[in-house]
Design goal:
It contains 13 helices and twelve strands. With 352 residues, it is of the alpha/beta class. It folds into two domains: 232 residues, Type I PLP-dependent aspartate aminotransferase-like (Major domain) (Aspartate Aminotransferase, domain 2, 3-Layer(aba) Sandwich); 116 residues, Aspartate Aminotransferase, domain 1. Strands 1-9-8-5-4-2-3 form a seven-stranded mixed sheet, sandwiched between helices. Strands 10-11-12 form a three-stranded antiparallel sheet, with helices on one face. A two-stranded antiparallel sheet has the order 6-7. The longest helix has 19 residues.
């Protein structure tokens, strides 16, 4: 399909993006807007929801810095919150104590593919008239209590970068049942040029146009969409592969010294597979020993309240503090085999 884009010669945003959006909208049964990456998706979702300078957005500290940067890019202030130990997602019990007159939204991060405590978060948000943006970068294809993540709630943002559950090379999307949000995003992603998305889908450009607010060059290209469509068509195979690999890890690690996050991988499509190391472990030494075995590991993530840019908004986060040096992410991608998983676990057990 990428060759079709090249043959057509229209590489920017056009009919292939429109086609990808239609597939995603049918998948979620909600309106969808495709953008250049997952970070842009969150930023645009926040802006479309009316988040402005000096507004406050509640967000777990344990997330990639992209979540925080998307908030601060709007001029808003990310307010660090703690997580729950069982799923490493935003703790609903902390939310009400963090709400002030400036609080306008909650950014719920679906860590490792799980929507976690989203029901409680939506209930609290309704009580205080807050918007809920789901950072669902890890959760494309996951379900929560029988509902597809993105098919319910307020606004969900997904990432399609090279290592996600499906990829468009780069890319992301915003999904919402609020049509006004998607209409606003469609304008903001193309520098705020009114009606330009429809023109691009027709292979045209807007030359005499109007702009009412700050927009961004965050639209998806036809090349990205073509890759995304091919990946979307293979999604069931890719999802099942990730789920089976995670189940293999669970089976091999059930009696290990490490703690695993207990997830239903019949419903959750995992982007990463994190484990919790024993308190006495030295994660850096363990990572090097695993690397010596040819096994790359990750750290998801350094808490954002420890970063210079966000230290001034630090809060007491006991669970994050307890776990921040003990979380280790094991390899998980469709190219792995069960034999690879066995090697990872064997080397891990030997070096614990």
């Amino acid at each position: 399909m990428v060759m079709s884009v090249l043959d057509e010669g229209y590489l920017g945003m056009g009919r292939f993006v429109e086609s990808f959006e239609k597939k995603l909208s049918q998948f979620f049964n909600r309106d969808t807007s495709c953008v250049v990456n997952g970070t842009a998706a969150i930023q645009l979702a926040l802006q479309a929801a009316g988040i402005e300078r000096n507004d406050e957005v509640l967000v777990p500290s344990l997330t990639y810095v992209a979540s925080y940067q998307a908030i601060s890019a709007t001029g808003a202030i990310p307010v660090s919150c703690d997580i729950t130990k069982d799923n490493l997602c935003l703790d609903p019990k902390q939310i009400e104590s963090r709400i002030t007159k400036k609080t306008k939204a909650i950014l719920a991060v679906h860590y490792a593919g799980e929507a976690g405590n989203i029901d409680e978060i939506l209930t609290i948000a309704k009580k205080y008239h807050l918007r809920v943006i789901e950072d669902a970068a890890h959760a494309f294809g996951s379900s929560h209590k029988g509902r597809l993540v993105g098919s319910f709630g307020d606004i969900a943002c997904f990432s399609f970068d090279g290592i996600k559950n499906i990829t468009s090379g780069e890319g992301g999307c915003i999904v919402s049942g609020d049509k006004k949000i998607i209409e606003k995003v469609n304008e903001l992603r193309l520098l705020g040029v009114l009606g330009d998305s429809k023109q691009r889908f027709l292979g045209k450009r807007s030359w005499d146009f109007e702009v009412n607010e700050q927009g961004w060059r965050y639209h998806m290209s036809n090349i990205m969409a073509a890759i995304g469509i091919e990946q979307f068509n293979k999604k069931e195979i890719l999802f099942k592969k990730r789920q089976n690999l995670a189940k293999s890890y669970d089976k091999l690690l059930i009696n290990s010294k490490v703690d695993i996050l207990k997830k239903n991988y019949n419903l959750i499509v995992p982007h990463i597979y994190p484990i919790i190391l024993p308190k006495a472990s030295n994660r850096n030494i363990l990572r090097q020993n695993l690397l010596d075995c040819g096994i790359e590991t990750g750290v998801h993530y350094k808490p954002n309240h420890l970063l210079n840019l966000y230290k001034k908004i630090n809060h007491n986060l006991p669970i994050t503090k307890n776990l921040q040096d003990r979380i280790l992410t094991l390899p998980l991608h469709p190219g792995l085999t069960n034999k690879d998983i066995e090697k990872v676990v064997s080397c891990l057990e030997t070096n614990l």
